[in-house]
Specification:
It contains 13 helices and 19 strands. With about 475 residues, the chain is α/β, with parallel strands linked by helices. The strands form five sheets. The chain has an eight-stranded mixed β-sheet, sandwiched between helices. The chain has a five-stranded mixed β-sheet with strand order 6-16-17-18-19. Helix 6 runs parallel beside helix 8.
């Protein structure tokens, strides 16, 4: 398995390191550490990754001061498996010992709480003298027993995003809901926002970042370094942006319903009007601009408190999404369609001394490298150690062993790329797709049936990373039939 750069600590907290020197990038005084996560943020919608339409000036400014990674991908998917990676520092792939979570609306391998028997990054940094804070509006964090707040001395879950079980939909007229929205999530969405015409502050993202800004205010005189983890669910569905952001991208001629979500399937299997898809993109773009706006306000607060010059900032998303803009015209992010729209994520690291500022790196990196970098900077790690690689070493020009490939599991599907081939299939090696990344139009044709050696190599790498076998759990029969997992 690709598990180099292992960091471990003894029961007393003394560090033991293999292939990575925690002190290599360590300042005399400990840095503050700020981790920013925005769910379902497709990198191609951001200015730092070439987008000329969607307004993301805050991330553009951050990118100018940061190392920007062009081949960042998740090591596992989706929302909760990736959060287990980010909070534990250990690889969650290939989803062993899965137990469904009671009282959640998602059932899939890897979707489970933080184990009470494993240490967390926040616990390790708290032991090392950090003041730890955690602010998030991801509704799945709030499911009973998820156990993600361990190690955080200040934390808050901001309620009311998407399908969060927060407010009653009973007061809202069902006829008006059905006339305006083409989604079963509409009642919870409208209820959680407090009505049909919500203000920006009724959305969770502004309240999440406001809470994080309050954390900075409250700790401006705190002599301890801080570890602040901010995690917003937007621009994840439901896709309805505040009016001022939606107006930036909407087509005034559109008179159809609002699709808060798109079917996780192909357009052929579950048709959606083309103009409705474009309207969903407009709302998605508006939500991205809203997130960008509040990232900018948080970073301005960081500067105001005088801690900007001594803070390591890491920004990442868990995955992207699709708007029928791939060969199969897949919408959303079904596990059986691991195209770049889902798999390519933004990742930026801003060094306190601006090392690597403005540089772009094409090495294969993972979401898994975020906690590894945090632990390297802090000089502390969970007792079980962390997997992943220290991105500061790459930015410094040494001590980073490049990966030859990346693998990922999402529900009952697996993925592998080495820069030459892009492969995904289900875990039974059915519905295989392989695309030749060296061709002029890589995703124009699935060449799996003509590329036996490449398919065999991808399967070999996936199984090696999985320790020899992929755990099999009962799959939903309907999804298996549709070929989406």
């Amino acid at each position: 398995m690709q598990r180099r750069n292992f960091i471990a600590s003894t029961a007393t907290g003394a560090m033991v390191s293999s292939q990575i020197a925690l002190t290599q990038n360590q300042p005399q005084a400990k840095w503050n550490i700020l981790v920013l996560v925005s769910d379902t943020t497709r990198k191609g919608f951001l200015e730092p990754y070439g987008n000329k339409t969607v307004k993301t000036p805050s991330l553009a400014r951050l990118a100018a001061e940061s190392a920007v990674f062009d081949n960042a991908r998740p090591e596992c998917l989706p929302t909760i498996p990736t959060r287990r990676t980010l909070h534990s520092g250990r690889r969650v792939f290939p989803f062993r010992n899965y137990q469904p979570v009671p009282w959640d609306n998602v059932t899939m391998p890897g979707w489970q709480p933080m184990s009470p028997s494993e240490d967390t990054v926040a616990e390790a940094l708290s032991r090392a003298g950090y003041h730890t804070g955690f602010y998030a509006d991801v509704p799945h964090y709030t499911v009973p027993g998820m156990n993600f707040t361990r190690g955080f001395q200040q934390w808050d879950y901001i309620r009311g995003n998407a399908e969060d079980r927060y407010r009653s939909a009973a007061p809202y007229d069902k006829k008006r809901l059905s006339e305006r929205y083409a989604s079963g999530r509409a009642p919870a969405h409208v209820a959680n926002l407090g009505g049909f015409e919500p203000d920006e502050m009724d959305f969770a993202t502004p309240r999440t970042f406001s809470a994080a800004m309050k954390f900075l205010d409250e700790n401006r005189t705190n002599p301890q370094p801080f570890y602040l983890y901010v995690d917003t669910f937007h621009p994840h569905e439901t896709w309805e942006a505040p009016r001022k952001y939606y107006d930036l991208y909407r087509d005034p001629a559109y008179k159809g319903k609002t699709y808060l979500t798109l079917p996780y399937n192909t357009l052929a299997a579950m048709p959606v009007p083309e103009d409705a898809i474009q309207n969903a993109r407009a709302h998605y773009s508006g939500l991205i601009t809203m997130v960008d706006t509040w990232i900018g306000r948080l970073l301005a607060k960081l500067k105001e408190t005088g801690k900007d010059e001594n803070t390591l900032i890491l920004y990442v998303s868990d995955h992207g999404t699709n708007f029928a803009d791939n060969p199969e015209r897949v919408m959303g992010k079904p596990s059986g369609a691991m195209y770049p729209g889902t798999m390519d994520v933004p990742l930026m690291v801003r060094h306190p001394h601006r090392k690597g500022a403005g540089k772009r790196f094409r090495e294969f990196v993972y979401t898994l490298d975020i906690p590894a970098t945090v632990c390297a900077a802090a000089g502390a790690a969970p007792r079980e150690g962390v997997d992943g690689k220290n991105l500061l070493a790459l930015m410094d020009g040494g001590g980073f062993a490049p990966r030859d490939y990346q693998t990922c599991r999402y529900a009952g599907s697996v993925f592998c790329t080495d820069g030459k081939s892009w492969f995904f299939s289900n875990i039974h090696w059915e519905n295989m797709r392989l695309f030749d990344l060296e061709s002029s139009n890589p995703f124009a044709k699935n060449v799996a049936s003509q590329a036996g050696e490449r398919v065999a190599l991808a399967k070999k790498r996936i199984l090696e990373d999985a320790g020899g076998a992929l755990p099999v759990y009962p799959l939903i029969a309907a999804d298996r039939v549709k070929g989406m997992i």
